[in-house]
Amino acid sequence: MEKYRIDRSKGLEFGLYTLGDHLPDPNTGKRISAEQRIHEIIDLAKLADQAGIDFFSVGESHQDYFATQAHSVVLAAIAQATSKIKIASSSTIISTSDPVRVYEDFATIDLISKGRAEIIAGRASRIGLFDLLGYNIRDYEELFEEKFELLLKINEEEVVDWSGQFRAPLNNARVLPRPQKGSMPIWRAVGGHAASAIKAGFAGVPMFLATLGGPASSFKQTITAYREAAQRNGFVPAELPISTAGFFYVAETTQQAQRETYPYINEGMQVTNGRGYPKQHFAQGADKRDVMNIGSPQEVIEKILYQHELFGHQRYIGQMDFGGVPYEKLMNNIELIGTEVLPAIKKYTAKK
Amino acid sequence: MKIVGLSGSRLGSKTRTAMNFTLQSVTEKYPDAEVSLIDLADYDIQFSDGRSYLEYEGDTGFVTKTIMEADAIIIGTPIFQASIPATLKNIFDLLPVNAFRDKVVSMLITAGSPKHYLIAEQQLKPILAYMKAQIVQTYVFIEEKDFHRKEIINDDVRFRIERLVEDTVVLTETYTKIREAKEAEYDF
Questions:
Q1: Does domain A2-349 sit in CATH 3.20.20.30?
Q2: Is the distance from CB of A148 to CB of A156 less than 8 angstroms?
Q3: For tag attachment on chain A, is the N or C end more exposed, with fewer CB atoms within 10 Å?
């Protein structure tokens, strides 16, 4: 775990992530400027840092209603503005980028932040960027696998010899600068399907698992499949960190949390995915056994601890800003995380 | 209430004739309903390549978005090679998972032979159920002999279509009311 900068004695890490969505507030119909949105993301990372939150990450989506296409640039600003919090991408679409450039960027962010940067590489759930950046969606899988492999190789080896289908070969190439410790944590982003988790396990790569909604027990199956694949291929599952990511929101009562967040999630999904979030599913999300961490601080703490018991994961990150949630609400959340959620999680998960 | 009629093939006239009659019946009986017809013969639709329906452009984007905005969809389709036409299946493939959640879907089938009667039951309904449609269980099955020069000549068929229209609207109204009442209970 050391390689991935995870200190098990400190218990479950708690983080926040944003997709960098840039949506109108459904309650007012108004949308802030991209400039304001980007500044609010940077400020949110600062507040998270001050509240003692472990991790903050920003994603890239290249289409309407998003503002952090250049997520590594935003992360560089966050690196400069913060001092302790780990920072990462959630995720970097490695398929449509040059792994050499991505590594150069994130190694630089690691140096700016003095050893706090990580990469989470994903395949993209919104695929607008394939057209925009000149890639063929038919190569969706192979682009990811090949480029992800190269990214991992660059991380492991200072001098790289490599050849593949989608990029010019590298001969005795040195990819610089190197991160502070010579290498940095690189994770594979995994959606709901066990198939992708199995690939991550087979390669012995840490897994970031998206868990938006549904029973925790069904995500447990994906985690088990990941660990079994790692074991089968000669890796020690206990040495491979797992992180989960999903909706998060706390307010005084669970009902208030649901009321405050439902319109944002529903309308946000309607605009970005073309389907809203069914109320019935959202209502079920309040159940302790569901992965959606929306509720009163006490309810959410119980859920996170339940998930930790079930998954045995090392990090949980929450998405609370989706769909144009106003900044004051996010500040409230950080306050409640810092004073209630975080101390409880650490208290119950840290190794004494 | 937005009702979309979807005529599912690029070939022949029976389905379109039946759909014209159907939508005319909707307009006469329910003047407040917003009715539109998509006849796939009039559009140039690409094959599904797996992207989100929001990302298709031109005719493909127009058709998928129109269907996704509908409250009720009346599908009219012929039977080709003992199955639904590829043009209609492609529409389903273009749409997302659970695309018909909270939508009512009803069907009318035209066929050259009564031997095809169960094809909608065994091949079309399972697709609609998988896509989470509220299905009007009874469909109208119309044969070649019920048509003459682009007119329906069998009164029994006309009556059955009128009942299909009524069932579609009644189920949509009822289902919407039930869902709204249920959602109001959630209090968020």
A1: yes
A2: no
A3: C
As a whole number of Å, the end-to-end CA separation of chain B is 25
Instruction: Yes or no: say if A212 and A273 are a contact pair by the CB < 8 Å rule.
Output: no
A158 DSSP 8-state letter: S
- Please tell me the distance from the alpha carbon of residue A208 to that of residue A313, in angstroms, as a whole number: 10
Cis amide linkage into residue A91, ω under 30° from 0: yes
Whether the CB-CB separation of A94 and A151 falls below 8 Å is answered with: yes
Q: Is A53 within 8 Å of A93 (Cβ atoms)?
A: no
Residue with tokens 């593949």: A164
* Alpha-helix residue ranges (DSSP H) falling in chain B: 14-29, 58-69, 86-94, 119, 125-130, 155-186
**Contacts with A137 from chain B: Cβ below 8 Å:** 49-51
Question: Which residue segments constitute the domains of chain B, with CATH numbers given?
Answer: 2-186 (3.40.50.360)
**CB of A97 closer than 8 Å to CB of A147:** yes
Of the candidates A120, A193, A112, A197, which has an alpha carbon nearest to the alpha carbon of residue A151? Answer: A120
Instruction: Give the pair of three-digit tokens for residue A164.
Output: 């593949």
Q: Tell me which chain B residues have a C-beta less than 8 angstroms from the C-beta of A128.
A: 55
Beta-bridged to residue A21, according to DSSP, are A66
Q: Return the residue matching tokens 């309650």.
A: A27
Residue type, A129: L
What is the least distance, in Å, from the CA of B154 to any CA of chain A? 41
Tokens 């985690």 correspond to: A223
Round to whole Å and give the CA distance between A242 and A238.
Answer: 10
Q: Which of A126, A282, A283 sits opposite B52 (nearest CB)?
A: A126
Can you say whether the dihedral through the CA atoms of A203, A208, A214, A216 is positive or negative? positive
Alpha carbons B47 and B57: distance in angstroms, whole number: 12
Q: What is the pLDDT along chain A (352 residues), one digit of tens a residue?
A: 889 999 999 999 999 999 999 999 999 999 999 999 999 999 999 999 999 999 999 999 998 999 999 999 999 999 999 999 999 999 999 999 999 999 999 999 999 999 999 999 999 887 878 989 999 989 999 999 999 999 999 999 999 999 999 999 999 999 999 999 999 999 999 986 789 999 999 999 999 999 989 999 999 999 999 999 999 999 999 999 999 999 999 999 999 999 999 999 999 999 998 999 999 999 999 999 999 999 999 999 999 999 999 999 999 999 999 999 999 999 999 999 999 999 999 999 998 6
Query: Domain residue spans in chain A?
Result: 2-349
- Report yes or no: A292 and A247 within 8 Å, Cβ to Cβ: yes
Residues of A in contact with B68 (CB under 8 A): 274
Q: What do you get for the CA distance between the two ends of chain A, in Å?
A: 18
Tokens 């929101």, residue located: A249
Please enumerate in sequence order all residues whose Cβ is within 8 A of that of B176, keeping only pairs 6 or more positions apart, or say none: B71
Whether the Cβ atoms of residue B8 and residue B88 lie closer than 8 Å to each other: yes
Among left, alpha and beta (phi > 0; psi -120 to 50; other), residue A29 is: left
